[in-house]
Amino acid sequence: MTVVELPSRRPSLRPVTPVGILAARLSELAGRAADSLDWKAELADLAALAAGIEAYSSAHTSPESPALAALARRTRDQDWSMSATLEPEMVSGHVEGQLLKMLVHVTGARRVLDVGMFTGYSALAMAEELPPDGTVIACEIDPDVAAFAVGNFATAPAGDRIEVLIGPAAQALAQLAADDDPFDLIF
After folding, report:
1. Direct distance between the N- and C-terminal alpha carbons of the chain, in angstroms, rounded to an integer
2. Is 113 helix (H, G, I), strand (E, B) or coil?
3. Rounded Cα gap, residues 140 and 170, in angstroms
């Protein structure tokens, strides 16, 4: 039998994704900041790179369904100024929605819990990946936001797979625990 000892350190790979490039360049910049004044231009370049990460991720992710696109548009167009705590940026969004769909798919989930659904993007994304007899139980404390979400679900093909519980999450979770019906995935 021959034993070959491999080196303990793998050679470092050249970063190729926006996040990897950003991390490597920020690390390099931090090392140079004390030694030179040219770091200001480099920092501006890195800020521009960071600003493009979401667009890059979105462009390289499976497209969202028409129902999800419509829900995201309605959320952006809604006037949230009536609330000090709600804003359209709270929507899960395209990339996170596609990740949730993938998690539903790879786990084979049939029963999903979504705690704090806001306008329902995450709940609808997961419902779209469930089998026809699957269910998303979505919890939302704000009755007006829940009504907004339910209105979106009514026009979505997978909207009938979503059940909305309105009220404090602790109360909903206690009720669900008493039902003793386990979830395959919780978000």
Report:
1. 50
2. strand
3. 11
Contacts of 185 (CB under 8 A, 6+ apart): 103, 104, 107, 109, 111, 112, 113, 126
- Helical (H) or strand (E) element with 42: helix 39-51
The identity of residue 31, as a single letter, is G
pLDDT tens track for 46-91: 777 777 787 888 899 999 999 999 999 999 999 988 888 888 888 8
| CA dist., res. 152 & res. 119, Å (int) | 8
Separation CA 129–CA 39 (nearest Å): 46
As a whole number of angstroms, the distance between CA 177 and CA 166 comes to: 16
Q: What is the pLDDT of residue 1?
A: 52
* Best CA proximity match to 152, nearest among 127, 132, 124, 126: 124
Distance (Å, whole) CA 39 – CA 57: 27
- What's the gap between Cα 55 and its chain centre? 14
Q: What pTM does this model have?
A: 0.78
The pair of structure tokens assigned to 156 is 């979505």
Q: How do residues 112-141 score in pLDDT, each as one tens digit?
A: 999 999 999 999 999 999 999 999 999 999
